[in-house]
Amino acid sequence: MPRFSIIVTVQDIAGRLPTALDAVLAQSFTDFELIAACEAPGSPAGTVAAEYAGRDPRVVLVTGSRDAGLGAATGTYLLFLEAGDALTPGALAAADARLREAREAGGETDVLRLGHERVPWWEGEAEPELFEDADPTDVRLPVWATAYRRAFLREHGLAFPEGRGTDLGWAGLVALASGRTEVLDTVCVRRTERRRSGGTPTREQAELLDQVELVLDRAAARGLPEDRLRALFGQLFAEVLDRAAGSPRDRAFLRRAGRLHRRHRPAGLRTPGVRNRLLRFGASTAFRTLVALGGRTARARAYAARTTVRWRRALTYAWHLRRPLDENLAVFAAYWGRGYACNPAAVHRTARELAPHIRSVFLVKEKELPHMPADVESVVIGSRRYWQVMARAKYTFNNVNFETAVRKRPGTVHVQTHHGTPLKRMGVDQIEYRAVAAATGSFGRLMQRVDRWDLSLSSNAHSTEVWSGAYPSAFSHLEYGYPRNDRFHTAEPGEVAAIRERLGVPADRVALLYAPTYRDYPRDVSAQFDLARFCAELGEEFVVLLRAHYFLDGNADLRQAVADGRLIDVTSLRETEDVCLASDALITDYSSIMFDYANLDRPIVTYADDWDVYRDTRGVYFDLLAEPPGHVARTQDELLRVLTSGAWADERSAGLRARFRERFCAFDDGRAAERVVRRVLLGQPEEELPPLIPLRERLPVPAAAVSRPRTPAH
């Protein structure tokens, strides 16, 4: 049983269909089936769908509409898309992670609302639409931006109403079922809107009222509680009023809508607004006159409300921008507000120690607040306090970019800390790689954000060179090392042992950290790397620490490996540095974790089964197979031989690692955060900063399963 069934409705848009299908097939999360529901198999769109089904076994072609796809689906969760919809890169992986998180917190999710965006037909700039709550009764839920649990739909006998334009009816029936609803505040679906010609067809008007009548009749039959019935009625007729205002001359529509309004209006409900009252009494002429005079629709009012919020925030920001800079205020953020992590967190910790006069504020998403350290001042991104601190902070630290609306004030210092050493192409160097460039978006807006940088942090000369070309701007380089890697030199053996004990790593086992990277192209991971077999054939000497969530989904063999103690899933662990410290060796493909891990001077094995495809699709800065950090395996059998023979820790491995460390670990000596704080926050000149400890004199903490004295690494 696949995790997801993605049902794409194939209608009459042959030109857009490949975009929808390709976006699904390119997902990094591969446990899915793709069902193309085609009402006219012989049409141009049907021919395109058949071609995809013929060359890719993951594509199944069924005859019929969405209900036919629903009947053919076998996945745990269902997504319904159309030809104008495209999953964003990583969408299924993000949805799976959110579903697992929700299950651990309280049970299976029935309905998952996905963040989405609508691209205007003229290809204008889209604005993300993210849900703030999980109200299961909301009928305005876009069907194409929602994942449904199949068992939930089957339990309630839910099926799509007949006809076209049935989204409102379906959403209403789902709302009546009141399933457990969660939200994912990440843009997962991008819809390109179709341009409509003038007017609204009478058939569509009638079908909309059919859907409203169906839902209200079903609600009445079920004896829906008064509060829910009021909310449902209000939402449905907001859509009716919106449609009525768009076609005010359709008297039949207005009269029928009025009859429905009078028949189903909950007792005692006051319907605010002149248009509601005119519709209720069937005053079609007065209604048309009001619309002609400029009465705003419900959608217009909602848009006005959102615009008002944005303007209020903009005015708040503008007002604080006029105030003096706070010379002792520094703000920090990491990974678009996803918590206290990476280089910004490491600098933040050191700033509180060495520069206590600086007020250090960490910016996070609201859902991350429970995970923040109790003694860290946190501000929710997008709140009024966020715009206040962003306007007045003298110093800003981020490992990605702040949103475009943030202005760079004269006198402020923006430090870009980055979050990895680049093997893959970055910034404007991605332009020639089409798949990557498409996902990156506007390079013009990217460079506007880069122009705010004053200082860029590097952990090696290679990074300095890459940042200069990939992000051409006037910033200066700080070749101080990555603050997050300081722990590899400052941790003690007792700390390593404590982390291993917390993770459940047996003291007598060699812990292999397996951390593959994301691909920008379709890849059947389970077929190309049998992790269950890998764990079984390694032998009792090893245990695998897995940092990649998609392997475990629905795989009974892997669950058995976990039960047998051969596999430990560490994907959800927030501190990547802890996982590295707990392990004795690293297995990865092209992930930047290899550059950080090399600071520990522990063995690294590269599993490069698709290097040629990755290199040509993603673009790279150097040939990893010619300059690897250790042994390279191109097949799973080769990887097993390297590990079971002991070659993973032999002299050749050590020699390759030494050369790799000389090139990529030049500045990481355990004092990077101190240098950043002294240089940026305390204003000390370069000559007063801690001198770089030579590579041969550094003392990374030893691996727990390898007995050796703590002597300088060579």
Structural class: alpha/beta
Tally the helices: what do you get?
Answer: 28
Termini gap: 51 Å
- Strand tally: 22
Q: How is the main sheet built?
A: 9 strands, mixed
Report Rg.
29 Å
In percent, how helical is the residue content?
Answer: 40-55%
Q: State the low-pLDDT regions, or none.
A: 549-554, 706-714
Note the overall shape.
globular
β-strand percent reads 15-25%
- Mean pLDDT rating: 84
Please describe the structure with a list of short key phrases separated by commas or semicolons.
41% helix; nine-stranded mixed sheet; globular; alpha/beta; seven-stranded parallel sheet
What do you see in this structure?
Helix 6 runs parallel beside helix 7 and helix 8 (226-246) runs antiparallel to helix 9. Strands 1, 2, 3, 4, 5, 6, 7, 8 and 9 form a nine-stranded mixed beta sheet that branches. A seven-stranded parallel beta sheet has the order 12-11-10-13-14-15-16, sandwiched between helices. A six-stranded parallel beta sheet has the order 19-18-17-20-21-22. The chain is globular and about 85 Å long. It is built from 28 helices and 22 strands. The chain is α/β, with parallel strands linked by helices. The model is unreliable at 549-554 and 706-714 (pLDDT under 50). The longest helix has 24 residues, at 298-321.
Secondary structure layout plus pairing:
Elements: E1 4-10, H1 17-25, E2 32-38, H2 44-55, E3 59-63, H3 66-72, E4 77-82, E5 85-87, H4 91-106, E6 111-119, E7 127-129, E8 146-149, H5 150-155, H6 167-177, E9 181-192, H7 202-222, H8 226-246, H9 251-264, H10 274-280, H11 284-292, H12 298-321, E10 326-333, H13 342-354, E11 359-364, E12 377-380, H14 384-392, E13 393-398, E14 413-416, H15 434-440, H16 443-450, E15 455-457, H17 461-470, E16 476-478, H18 487-490, H19 493-503, E17 510-514, H20 525-528, H21 531-538, E18 542-546, H22 556-563, E19 567-569, H23 576-582, E20 585-588, H24 593-597, E21 604-607, H25 611-618, E22 632-633, H26 636-644, H27 651-664, H28 672-681
Parallel strand pairs: 1-2, 1-4, 2-3, 6-9, 10-11, 10-13, 11-12, 13-14, 14-15, 15-16, 17-18, 17-20, 18-19, 20-21, 21-22
Antiparallel strand pairs: 4-8, 5-9, 6-7, 6-8
